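Lab meeting minutes (informal)
Scribe: AK
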Amino acid sequence: MKSFFKNVLANIVAIVILCFVFFFFFIIMIAVSSMGGEKSVKVKKNSVLTINLKTSIIDSPTEEQQSIFNISEKNQNILIYDAVEAIHKAKDDDNIKGISIETDNINAGTTQIDDLRNAIEDFKKSGKFVYAYGNAVSQASYYLGSVADQYYLNPSGGIELKGLATEVTFFKDFAEKYGIGIEVIRHGKFKSAVEPFLRNDISPENQEQLSTLLNDIWGNTSSKMAASRKMKNEEFKTVVDSLYGMIPDLTVKYKLADKLIQKTEYDQLIRTKLSLAEKDKLNKVSLQKYIDSFKDKNGSGEKVAVLYASGSINSGDEYNEIYSEKYIKYIKDLQEDDKVKAVVLRINSPGGSANASDEILFELQQLKKKKPLVVSFGDYAASGGYYIAMGADKIYSEPNTLTGSIGVFGVLPYFKDIANKNGVRSDIVATNANSAYYSSLHGLTPYGVNLMTRSVEGTYKRFVHFVTQNRKQTFEQIDNIGGGRVWSGVRAKKIGLVDELGTLNDAVKFAAQKANLKSYNVASYPKKMTAFEQIFEDMNEDDISARVIKNKIGKANYEILEQLTDEKLKSEVKMEMPYRIKIN
């Protein structure tokens, strides 16, 4: 027995010591990582700015927040604003001689790639070279890489150039088969977020809006690729329709690539372009390192604040995505900060909770009374995402932004039939006439349906009211282009839903002009979490489980699961776009 207790005590001591060792090692790693970010980066002569496989372009500091337990530098998360500024700066930097695009599967949204592409087009006016290289190249990566003067492909590689398509899945028969009832209340014939629960096929309205959207986006992107590769649009269409990009030899024959070469040969081409001797090193500078070489870390002086609103809109106080309590605090802080002279709200959101959207809009309207508020749209500014933009002095949209979706809906599932089939039933005891206007077994009562309908209609009218005020149009005009319909940024400009087509950088410049600033710093909000804040965030059991599930089933599938399981996201009126479009 004595030996037993001795062994147990030894094991406990060993575990405690191991925990302390791990903790101190962890603290040291954090310190090293933090110091590493502050190192001064000097750009050598004859350098090449490189966009590579490690580059992950994000729209907001809250996107893809990496776990502090993963200290690897596998991905470099770079804000699109910083990436564009870096390319503009490189244009006039004598130490940067060219740009090399070396990515097969770029992690960036459609509008972000547009911004990078436009910045590189401007860079080329300097006379400096832009080369690109790929192996198994995604369509999004080719969209970026095709801007290069020369595009090189691995001899065994390929380009997945196929156009855009979307597949709508329907659950009506599934729900009926298994006895799941779904109460749906919506305003807007184009509000197709609920269509999969109501039909077994796509509605003519949804077919129309999807076809228009896809053709708008593909027409814009394909014409740019064709122009960069010096092809006629009809010729490019044939190449895409025939999937010629999949066959390496055909990529050269049909002008998608200039030559099939190995990566080592590609590097040698750059060396020759730079007139490097055999002993000279090829200096490739990543976007992140180049940004670190010039980005102001002090943040002193007058500021234009960029408040990023990225993700679904929800009630609550969490860091990721857009949570109303958190964002109200951000907005009030910016309102009271005397150094912040103007605010740019960068929206990249498909919407979400109507109540949370309304709370955020109110605070933005208060902010606008004190300082200029300019809005910039990213990939999405739809439903609640468009709603919160209605406090702006001016709205900038990207050409491919999914915009509008002015509509409202509510979805309430119930399980009466499936419960009854399996021997489950319930009786209700209540104190008032409508204490049980909704239950998970019985669904909505007739009065509950009437109540929810009034709520949805009232929310829609409130939505349109704020749009009429901001866009200076009548209720009838907005209702005519509303109804839940989603528009491309180009069409949104034509029908008056936005003021200008432009980038986040354009919005920042306008905000500075409106605030009469001659010199200013650009500050990003919300701030990235500190290392210690991230530790506590990572140790949350629910967050750990969510990350594991999200990694296993994918982000898109996880969002659907979240809608069904998260109590905060169920049983409330929604302003949300029904789908996402991405050039994969």
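Next up, CB showed the second protein from the same session:
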Amino acid sequence: MADEQKSFPLPSSVKVVPGTEDAQAAYPYYAQFTPEDDDRFWFYNSMHFPEPMHHFDMITAEAAYCALGSFNTRVHVLPTTKGIDHRVINGRVFIGGVPVTDPEEIEARTAEFQQRAFYYYENWEKLYDQWKEKMKALIADAQALPTPSLPDLEPIETTHTGKGVAANHALIDTYRKQLEGYYRMWHHHFEFLLLGYGAYLTFFDFCKRAFPEISDQAISRMVAGMEAEIFKPDEEVKRLARRAVELGVDSHFHDEMEIEQVLGALDQLGENGREWLQELETSRHPWFNVNVGDGFYHYHRSWNDDLSMPFAALPGYIDKVKKGENIERPMDQLVAEREQLVSDYRELLDSEEDKATYDQLIGLAHRVFPYVEGHKFYCEHWYTNLFFNKIREYGALLRDHGFWEAEEDVFHLTHYELESAIVDLMLAWSSGSAPLGPKRWPAIIAQRKQAIEAWAEATVPPALGAVPDVIDDPAIVMLWGITRENLDTWLSDGEENENELKGFAACSGVVEGTARVVKSVKEIGRLEEGDILVCQVTNPTWAPIFQKISAAVSDIGGSMSHMAIVAREYGLPAVVGTGAATQKIRDGQRIRVDGGRGVVTLLDEEHVLEDA
């Protein structure tokens, strides 16, 4: 019985939701669970994939793990871990690490890692500047790809210039270039990321050995107060709020406003209105190229595609500006606290050698850490949103040729199936006959739409398989918050105290308030002033709503998860990695969040309610 208590359900025991078997089978074979997978430990990656995955959207897992594994395993050669395998069932992505346990292999990989990673650390600024240029060039290449189209007849210039290539070839050429660019982007993404975590983790391990009583949160606060591009969109919204007050157009922004009406009214208002609109354009390009999710779902549209998120934040920011309140991120406070902590702990070290090592490690962490969040703006947001919009162009073309009803239906096909549909259209155009797709895809798309709805209602186990004795993959611990202690807590299902949830102490502060359980980006609008956000995961682009909420709680995440980092940067009390907060906390329930201890208390269930 003891062994059974230490195991989550086996992958083979997880049943496909009845009626969705064909939709499940349509995912690529290499992303399906096999009997051999019962021998491994897997966990649900709700941090990156909190909602059921449309079939095309699975490319976000596929391309990301191709790149992550390449850099872990064969480029930077991390000593104790290789890549991450992924599987999908009922639209949910489960992942499992591939550890290195042989001491001789670890020793050999360590020697390789030192040669490779140290070169990056020594030349970080130069290489990072090159990285930004690579990403901007990749974005420009994607923007330059033509919109797919098919003329009734080739222009006469095709023959008179000896071009020698017909229009249908451009369909497959452009599509493959889109996929190539997307896979390449993920390689750029992971070129620096694990090294950024590695520098922090080396400092983290030193602190744990030198200061046995130090908390994870205290160490993380030593790298707070960072400048990173991912925070810039929210700063631009604040700038627009200040400009609205300065230009005297602030009365147009309120909770009941219609965005198009506001834009039209400002255009008619005169010089000040048009000046604010020009300021909006300045902010939008490039800073509104962020989506409302974490960059893994086609329907998490960018702020540029849908201005709802930034405009929803404007009334609150404007109100605070008019009251003379500070709306900036508390950078001075964060930096002062950071420097004080670094200094205080340095004084506790006995030897000059330890102090020199400490100085070197914290110095490296400060140099490299901004990349850990900054890269997201270019990769998961700007490039990924551009990529999905380019795929929409194929959705529109195939819709116009009768393959399906709506542009968005394209995302119910895998990327292999979409290529086959494109080839079908190419063949039909070239032969002058009707394509076969219009008879094939509508029924399949309808079936997959129903599957997505059914999977959204299904309960998802947080993990699968036997709990490993040791979890030493630094990314899995720091990013996802998967530790042996946490897994044991999840397995106990709150037996110790059913009114408490435990997680990582992300940002200190004690807050009592109303829990607002938000299970998808679509529900963000339900948040009201003073609510405590309870979600599977959040990310930096939700920053504009942080002015409304008083605290945050997440299912997944470790002390270096994006939610934990963002909470610290905004001074928002938070507990991450609770396992099942979205399932155990009722919407509207009163709860207490203790961000310093990493504890969430369900107050409605207590015998005696405490005063706030």
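CB comment: Confidence is low (pLDDT under 50) at residues 606-612.
No objections, moving on.
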